[in-house]
Every structure is written in C-alpha cells, then in structure tokens.
Amino acid sequence: MGIKILLEKILSGTREEARAALKDLEKVWRAYAREGIGSKKDWTFFINALKKFDDALSLDNKTVFVAALRYPIMAIGEKHFEEFSDFVLKVVSDPAGRLRQAAVSIAVDLVWSLEMAQMIVGAKPIPQKLEERIKANRVRFGVFIDKLEKLRDMHCEIRLESIEYIEELPPSICKSAEAMLFDILDDDTAEYIYEAHKDGRLTSLDMVSPAAIYEMGRARDKEDLRVPEWMECTWRRVPCGKKSCPVCGRIASDRERYPKERENAKSMEASLTEMMRGLSKTLKMLKKNAKMHGIDLETLNQIKSEEPPRQVEFPLCRLVMDWNKNLFQIEAMAQDLGAFWLQTEAAADLFWYANVLNGKVYRQLCNRWHLERGDDYGDFDFEYTGNILGESLKILKKSLNELSLWSPDQKGELLLAASHLAQLEEKIQAI
C-alpha cells in the first residue's frame, strides 16, 4: 500500500484504520531504509499534509499523524527541517496533552535528521561542502532549541530551578516543552553543540572535540547523580518536615486528608486507601522515570539476571543482626526495670539507627556484589549508602556512650554493645 493512501487513512480513517495504517507505514519505512524500496519523493506527501493537520477527523487521527512523522523525518528531515520543526513547536504548545506527548516522542529523531556530528568524531579532513553543510545544520539546530526554550519559558509559571524532576510539574505546555528539551539535550554531543551555539563558537572545527564532549558528559552526569536533599528524609529519624519535601509533604497531606480516620486506629479502610494511593503515585513516578530514560518496564521480566545473595547469606549481615537482637534484649530489660533512659532522645536514636544499620549493611553488600560482577547497578548507590552507614555508626556510638552514663543498672551491657559495634565498624568500613 502506497504512502499517500496510508496518509489518508491516518488523517481521515477510523481510530482502528489510522493505527493500522501507522503500523503499515513502519513497514514501508523499513523497506525504504534497509532495501532502498521507494524514493525520498514519496515521503514529501507529509509536507503538504502538515497544512491539513487542523482538518484531521479527530484527536486520535491527529495523534497518530504526529507519531507517524517519525518516518518522513528520518527520510527527508534535513531538507525540510524548518517545516517539521515549526510544526513540532506548534504541536507541543497544543492544549491536548496527547498531542504534546506525541510531539515529545519524535523530537530526538527530528534533531538528528540533521547531519551535524561527523566533524566531531572524524580525525581525517572532510570535504569542504560537507563541512559547510554540517556547520549550517548546527546553526539550524541551535535556532530550533532557542525557539523551544523561549516557548517553554513563556508557558512556565513557576521557577524550574525549584523542580527536582520533570514529573513534579503538572500536565502543561511547560512540562511538555521541558521534557522535549531534556530528551534532546540528554545527548552529550547535542548538548555540547548547543552550548557552542549559545557561546558563538560554531565557526571553528577545533572547538568541538571528543575530549571536550567527554568532559562535559562527566560533569553533567555528576550533577545529575547528586543526591537530592529530600533523600535524607527517607532514613533519618527526624526528617525536615517541610511541605515542599516529596517525603514529608506527602505525609503531611495524607494526615490532612484523613484526620478523623487517623484518630480511629481500627480504620482499615482509611489505611488501605492511603496505602493504595501511595503505591499508585510511586508506580506512576517509576513508569515516567523509566520512559524518560528509555526503559521498557514491560520487558524487564524477560531479562535474565543473577540475583545477589539473601541477607542471611552474608556473614557480616548475620553479625549485625545478632548485635541488633542483643540491643533489643537490652531494651526489653530496661522496660522491665522501668529505666528512664528509654524516654531520651539518645535512646530513640539508638533503636532507630540500629534498624537503619541492619538494612543498609545488606544494601551495601549487595552494591559491592554487583560492582564485583561488573554491573553499574551499585556504582552510585555504593557511595551514598557508605555515607549513610558512616553517619549511622557515628550516631549509634554517641548514643551508647551517653546512655551508659545515665543507666548504672545496665552500664555493662551498653558498654559491651558499644565494644561489639566498634568491631563491626571495622568490617562495615571494609565493604
């Protein structure tokens, strides 16, 4: 079936016909790209169709049409870049969220339809005509990103610097434009070219080098992997309590939502509602983050991978668990004695961070297990978990020392626990 007929079905067919035509169009593209069947001229039907977009039968037809643009863009995108890029800017500012998302999905294909990177990777001289073409394309790319940033800034009513993740933004033109910018500039080469464009450094081939791009990528990755402040609230006994915090803010909003139910400890319905709401939010965030990074969660169960040992299979974990068990035996004895030290902040810290230590030692051993097998999984988390362990050990030692002074009846047990902790500390730091 020809491209022209498929295009007509996409624009004016039923929902099922439009989607079927999109699948057939992908087959046509594959035959063109792999076997050379057809010509570039066949794909120019889409250029005229851009003008008929507003007359499409329904929102479904429009959405399928935007998704279908991936194929003509890959075929003739460089020659008709301005037509396609202006159209993408138009769609990403449409009130319909489905259309904006479709535009975001084809943005990377659009910018890389331009030949603009050969000068970066090639050590050999390139023909002058190709050099001029690449330079011109880099300018075209820069102008497009300028327009996209301007569009985003025009529609964003909040300061993006205050937003940690794109999904924190409400559905809007601002969010779609920011997501499109993220997808495009997430590539080190694209980011470097755009930075050079802004700084007026596109006139010399020497200004764009693999080493410079590599260093920019390292700097950006380090910045992207920084630990957000709110992560502290996931393990510290006393969190920040700010409403703007993703952890504390959610807890506060839940308390406001169910004030009466919380007074009734037997309100199972309220508890289940809260739990399902939290799981739903977590799942949505997980899916969005995965999609943003190109991960298909539906196929993860098809990936065969070796699992780390269980917690009890690590000797160090068993030692920490035994220490933890002994500590809570001391607590039970103190309750029988009616010891006042159980009501102190030092006691609260002791039992809280004993549990943190128990969980984080296992996590760190898993991180080490992954790293020793060449997996990137535990690389970043290894450093962060190490910091948590160091802070937890510091608090535990301080608490035990203070409590041993306040509880003469159990001073021996607490000092012995401190001594065993010091022995564990050496093993934990050696992970």
Q: What is the helix content?
A: 55-70%
Oligomer: single chain
Order of helices and strands: HHHHHHHHHHHHHHHHHHH
* Number of alpha- plus pi-helical segments: 19
Number of strands: 0
| Percentage beta strand | under 5%
**CA-to-CA gap between the ends?**
62 Å
User: Which structural class matches the secondary elements?
Assistant: mainly alpha
Low-confidence stretches: 119-123, 203-210
Report the principal-axis shape.
elongated
Mean pLDDT across every amino acid position: 81
Report on the biggest sheet.
none
Number of domains: 3
Radius of gyration: 29 Å
Compact overview of the structure:
It contains 19 helices and no strands.
